[in-house]
Amino acid sequence: MRLTTRTNLAARALMLCAANDGHLVRTSDIAERCNASINHAARVVQQLQVAGYLETLRGRTGGIRLAKPASRISIGTVFRIFETDIPFAECFDENRNTCPLSASCRLRSYVARALEAFYHELDLVTLDDLVRGNCGLMDLLAMQPDTPGACSIRSP
Question: What's this model's pTM, rounded to 2 decimal places?
Fold first, then answer.
């Protein structure tokens, strides 16, 4: 199994916004800090905004911030937004399935259960779980200079 680039970038963008809670970030900041093209970052930000995870403020002093608290953002739900457009295997796509084994193959049901277990585990993880107390991540993603010892303040 492999996550799409969009899913990976969506998680990174959300972590960047969570690490800079209280400050606006720009799409260009996301692209730079997450090693992505600005166009790719803009598409992911737009999708996250439509889904209600990011709030965008336009204009010269605008930017992006979380639309809800990090503790209320389920990573499993975010991953589903970006991963469900692409079928895991050909037999999962009713319109394009040409597999001659589909009618008798049992593998699909086992894979479906494994995928559900994967998402179930990610449903238990929030964005807050990924950033709170993660000093290394906070140092990498901080857009504003922090006061000494600020990371220890964020620890659980």
Answer: 0.84
